[in-house]
Amino acid sequence: MTRDRWADLQRSLPHHAGPVVLVDNGSGDGTPGLVRRHFPHVDVVELGENLGAAARNVGVERALTPFVAFADDDSWWAPGALGMAARLMREHPRLAVLAGRVLVGADGRPDPSEAAMANSPLGTAPDLPGPSVLGFLACGAVVRRDAFLAAGGFDDVVFFMGEEERLALDLAARGWGLAYVDHVVAHHHPSPARDPQARQALIERNRLLTMVMRRPWPVVLGEAATALRSGPAGRRAVAQCLSRLPRALAARHRLPAEVEDARRTLDQVIPLGV
Q: Which distant-in-sequence residues (6+ apart) come within 8 Å of 57 by Cβ?
């Protein structure tokens, strides 16, 4: 998915060897036409509006392949990564999300989430190719199409940033596996954050909304209290959460006990969203 990021796409699209579906979230910079002109092999879908992370759902529906690899407009997969991922998905039929290793920037430093996933306290199930996780980075993930769509894909409550958490929980609730595989590699070259406090507030807002949709009320209230005490970004997050609260409540349902227990295990060592 993309929105007003033609400069990034010029760099990233040449790295994609496989078929590409590009879903445009209402760009105003002429991105769809530019992509069609310079990359005619790319299947461009123009939404005409910004659906946030839910734009990926449109791309998954369009793909019609059994597995779909996500990429942001500033990321791409290493050579051979997707062939390896497809093989692992076929060999492990319970695997719904393969979370790959994401290397950031020109120096290829590991994304901060990598260590948490590689050392997941959930262990490695015998029918999965790596440590079990309850979160992933979309730009470094391959999904099983049918499982993704049956779980509802990404939702418009969170909208963007941290959108992976609710989906991960719902897939686990349906009995699917999610695993980290360090030898399937993606590269991510993000633009520098323009407003770190706004970004942190958005992350915290979406953490709270995800909790409202799936976690017990004591967990939700504890997180909200922590956010309020944490400073301006936390207070901003709680305030922003209020306008989306009715939709989060409408989508609320509790997780199976075993999934909630697993999330509580992660809560002890890993922040929500990893």
A: 149, 153, 154
Q: What is the pTM of this model?
A: 0.95
Please answer whether residues 77 and 16 qualify as being in contact, where contact means their C-beta atoms are separated by less than 8 angstroms. yes
DSSP code at position 199:
H
Q: How far apart are CA 114 and CA 100, in angstroms?
A: 9
Q: What is the pLDDT of residues 145-191, one digit of tens each?
A: 999 999 999 999 999 999 999 999 999 999 999 999 999 999 999 98
Alpha-carbon distances of 23 from 27, 54, 82, 158, 201, rounded to whole Å: 10, 10, 20, 19, 26
Distances, alpha carbon 173 to alpha carbons 5, 188, 246, in Å: 35, 30, 23
Specify the pairing of strand 177-188 against strand 75-77. Answer: antiparallel
| Amino acid at the residue 195 | D
Q: Write down the number of H helices and E strands in the chain.
A: 11, 8
Between the two ends of the chain, the Cα-to-Cα distance in Å is: 21
Amino acid identity at 100: G
Report yes or no: 47 and 26 within 8 Å, Cβ to Cβ.
yes
Contacts of 90 (CB under 8 A, 6+ apart): none
* Number of neighbours of residue 51 by Cβ within 10 angstroms: 20
Residues 117, 145: Cα–Cα separation, whole Å: 22
CA 55 to chain centre: 12
**pLDDT tens digits along 57-86:** 999 999 999 999 999 999 999 999 999 999
Gyration radius of the chain's alpha carbons = 18
